[in-house]
Amino acid sequence: MIAVEQKLKSICQTKALIFMKAHSERLPTKNMKKLCGRPLFHWILDSLSEAKYINEIIINTDSQEIAESATNNYDVTI
Predict the structure, then answer these.
(1) Taking the model in full, what pTM does it have?
(2) Mean pLDDT for back-to-back runs of 10 residues, the chain (78 residues)
(3) Which InterPro entries match (predicted)?
């Protein structure tokens, strides 16, 4: 079973594309708000990083702070 999963992962290239704005109209700096001491977007990136069949995480952002935090803490493409 493990060999099949590894083969599937190498054949199926699944990329996650995440849009993270610096400023939300309804909740300013929403993605940087803390939940249990960590920025909200870190929780999203944790889930994506642990996802079995996601090979690459791509972040589209207009925030230097989000870009720096994401690249310093995760294997992502900005």
Answers:
(1) 0.80
(2) 71 89 88 95 97 93 96 97
(3) CMP-NeuNAc_synthase, Cytidylyl_trans, Nucleotide-diphossugar_trans
